[in-house]
Amino acid sequence: MRKWVVCTIVCTAVLAGCGIGGSKTSTEQIDPPKEVTYKDQEGASTKTEPTAKQGEKKQAVNRELYLVDKNGYVVPQTLAIPTPQDNAVIKQALQYLVKEGPVTGMLPNGFKAVLPADTEINGVDVKDGVAIADFSEEFKNYKKDEERRIVEAVTWTLTQFKEVKQVKFRINGKDLTVMPVNKTPIGNGVSREDGINFDDEQVADVTNTKPVTLYFLAQTNKQTYYYVPVTRRIANSEKNELTAVVKELVKGPSPESMLSSDLNPDVKLLGEPKYEGGKVTLNFNENIYGSPDKNIISTYVLNSLVLSLTEQKGIDSVSIEVNGKSDIANEQGQKLTKPVTRPQNVNTGSF
After folding, report:
1. The whole model's pTM is what?
2. What burial class does residue 73 get, using C-beta atoms within 10 Å of its C-beta: 0-12 exposed, 13-18 middle, 19+ buried?
3. Rounded to an integer, what distance in angstroms lies between the CA atom of residue 25 and that of residue 6?
4. Which of 39, 77, 157, 230 matches a 20 to 30 Å C-alpha distance to 93?
5. SS3 of residue 212 by DSSP
6. What DSSP state is assigned to residue 132?
């Protein structure tokens, strides 16, 4: 599959604890929430989650739900959904992926849920980093061309939770080794390393390549942009994956993809990326600037770099230099004196 789902507009530079893409939804909180534990099923792992006091209105929480857009791309949309009464937040995330389910009135324009209508989530059992999602029989009611999107949407939605690294599928308690319609193999579980929205053009030898996930831009109208994760394969011979990620971002999306990039095609790294303690430092030539007469980096360029590089293992933040100097500002005029971290939420707005 070569198409992917898209996300919402990005307006501000990526900062720790912030979301990118549209406006954030805030809710008033009267008293600090209590910490409670939950279990999705017997034997499931526990997690602390805030809950309101008795008599108070429960607070909405931001969740990344991977939805499908009009072009068939699977993309994170951050939506504020109510804290579940039973605190089964992982199970609830899947319930919000069901067509004609609770997400219906919240869907951004052009987006749709991915799981077949009337699908019930029997439970989600989390143990040792693996989430086993158990669905009802209605889970089988989808078309062949929807199968890969379902696998991706479920996997990427569940792996937003820190305790989930891998996802396995069940129907009414029976483990699936292949998906029920088009027989996509899922026997050993699926993770983010298996990719999303594949861009596999000109890949003749898959065995000698490895996947990287890149973030490009899509547009809903003249004013609204959003980020799309795309998995592309690079040669195993690439010695430095971080360098390869930057090169692929500069290369840009496939011409037929309906995606775009704000990176100047003449952008180059002046040396290998430097890695230390979760931070990667990139030294670019002056073509990284959005304006030739100002030391300003485009918001879209900065966010695409940060989102793409922090998909790599061990990368928590990105520091940008130009000609070895860090005299750079974002479009809001703020100096980028500190490394930029991945936001808590991606694509936070509605269209």
Report:
1. 0.81
2. buried
3. 20
4. 230
5. strand
6. E
